[in-house]
């Protein structure tokens, strides 16, 4: 079944270019030229992925992304911007965007990034489909993760996680007890290198700790290994 992609951009030339190239790559494409229309289509049409411009009329891309995640719409989002602005980049990813590209861009690169997001999502499901037959979740301490549902619970309380926070927590849990470098986490969870900038990992780790740690300054689950990276372990294992 062909994947459906929603492209939201207020430049007709960008919409035409991306629509043509994505359809040539085998995707079905719908378009919107402002944030409100994009929000409506994202919720009503349930596309498989959203290409979202940052600067939009009526409702900007950051707000669209924020509102979709608040409504638990977990559709992958590839964010576009004409500004090469580090703040925008980190903020967009922090709010739950899956990837980020700066204009001008190559249509072939956009197609490649989208395919990479789909591959990573499929791989995540495949890697977790071999969990013990008697259980459909991963468990460590008070933490339970249901990969196929994209849900995580702590002390039986549903955690409000962005897609990236969930994927980071899942990856840490699957590699319980192992020290993972920031670069490893970038590569595994975000699927490409942010030119050596690992701050986005630290931001997401901080957010996860706020949701599962009683004392974020003395974390029981997500430990910082100075000079190396992070490690997830049970609260009574060190």
Please explain how this structure is put together.
- This protein is of the alpha/beta class.
- The protein has 2 domains: 123 residues, Rossmann fold, CATH 3.40.50; 102 residues, Orthogonal Bundle (Arc Repressor Mutant, subunit A), CATH 1.10.10.
- The protein is built from 8 helices and 12 strands.
- A 5-stranded parallel β-sheet has the order 2-1-3-4-5, sandwiched between helices.
- The protein is elongated, with a radius of gyration of 18 Å.
- The termini are far apart.
- The model has no long low-confidence stretch (mean pLDDT 86).
Helix content: 40-55%
The largest β sheet comes out as: 5 strands, parallel
In percent terms, what proportion of residues is strand? 15-25%
Tell me the strand order in the biggest sheet.
2-1-3-4-5
Radius of gyration: 18 Å
Low-pLDDT ranges = none
Briefly, what CATH class of the largest domain?
Alpha Beta
**CATH architecture verdict of the largest domain:** 3-Layer(aba) Sandwich
Q: Looking at the structure, what is the overall shape?
A: elongated
The overall strand count is 12
Total individual domains:
2
Q: Which sequence of SSEs, written as H and E, runs from N to C?
A: EHEHEHEHEHEEEEHEHHEE
Brief summary of the model shown:
The protein is an alpha/beta fold and 238 residues long. It has helices at residues 12-24, 35-44, 61-70, 86-94, 107-128, 163-174, 182-190, 199-212; strands spanning 4-8, 28-32, 49-53, 77-81, 99-102, 138-140, 143-146, 151-154, 157-158, 180-181, 222-225, 229-232.
């Amino acid at each position: 079944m062909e994947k459906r992609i929603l492209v939201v951009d207020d430049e007709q030339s960008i919409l035409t270019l991306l629509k043509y190239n994505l359809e040539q790559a085998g995707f079905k494409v719908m378009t919107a030229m402002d944030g409100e229309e994009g929000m409506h289509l994202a919720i009503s049409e349930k596309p498989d992925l959203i290409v979202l411009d940052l600067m939009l009329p009526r409702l900007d891309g950051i707000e669209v992304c924020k509102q979709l995640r608040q409504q638990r719409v977990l559709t992958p989002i590839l964010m576009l911007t004409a500004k090469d602005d580090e703040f925008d980049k980190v903020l967009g990813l922090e709010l739950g965007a899956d990837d980020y590209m700066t204009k001008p861009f190559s249509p072939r690169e956009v197609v490649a990034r989208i395919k990479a997001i789909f591959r990573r999502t499929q791989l995540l499901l495949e890697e977790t489909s071999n969990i013990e037959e008697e259980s459909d979740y991963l468990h460590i301490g008070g933490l339970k993760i249901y990969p196929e549902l994209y849900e995580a619970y702590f002390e039986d309380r549903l955690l409000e996680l962005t897609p990236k926070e969930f994927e980071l927590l899942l990856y840490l849990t699957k590699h319980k007890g192992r020290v993972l470098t920031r670069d490893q986490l970038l590569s595994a969870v975000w699927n490409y290198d942010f030119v050596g900038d690992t701050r986005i990992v630290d931001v997401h780790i901080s957010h996860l700790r706020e949701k599962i740690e009683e004392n974020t300054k003395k974390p029981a689950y997500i430990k910082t290994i100075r000079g190396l990276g992070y490690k997830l372990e049970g609260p009574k294992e060190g």
